[in-house]
């Protein structure tokens, strides 16, 4: 019985990872379609609003900028900067599942 429980648990974790990756990729593709913004939210980026996030998952989008590719500290606005780092993370019931980062040249 213990092996069956372990198998079900592992399948659930794999499923969470697969769902998280799909959510992240959908969000990154939606952000590509949006005009540049200091932060990406559904109101500023309607293509994000079209993504259905299952109730048990939470998606967080973080951004910061740099003029030389070195991201040593966050800045409030990307005005005058060259690169934007966009990180999308997914958690389930407050437990981190997966995050991915991409870069946008401004």
Q: Describe it for me?
A:
This protein is an alpha+beta fold and 106 residues long. The protein has one domain: 2-Layer Sandwich (Pantoate--beta-alanine Ligase, Chain: A,domain 2), CATH 3.30.1300. It is 34% helix and 29% strand. The chain contains 2 helices and 3 strands, in the order ααβββ. The protein has helices at 2-33, 46-49; strands at residues 57-66, 83-92, 95-105. The radius of gyration is 17 Å and the shape is globular. The relative contact order is 0.19.
Distance from first to last alpha carbon: 55 Å
Order of helix and strand elements from N to C terminus = HHEEE
Task: List the strand order in the largest sheet.
Answer: 1-2-3
Domain unit count? 1
How does the major sheet shape up? 3 strands, antiparallel
CATH class equals: Alpha Beta
Amount of beta strand: 25-35%
- Any guess at the CATH architecture? 2-Layer Sandwich
Based on Cα principal axes, name the global outline.
globular
Structural class: alpha+beta
């Amino acid at each position: 019985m213990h092996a069956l429980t372990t198998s079900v648990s592992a399948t659930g974790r794999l499923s969470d990872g697969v769902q998280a990756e799909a959510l992240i990729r959908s969000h990154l593709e939606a952000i590509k379609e949006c005009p540049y913004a200091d932060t990406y939210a559904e109101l500023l980026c309607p293509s994000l609003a079209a993504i259905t996030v299952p109730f048990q998952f939470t998606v967080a989008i973080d951004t910061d900028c740099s003029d030389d590719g070195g991201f040593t500290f966050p800045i409030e606005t990307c005005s005058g900067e060259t690169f934007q780092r966009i990180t999308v993370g997914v958690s389930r019931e407050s437990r981190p599942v997966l995050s991915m980062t991409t870069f946008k040249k401004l």
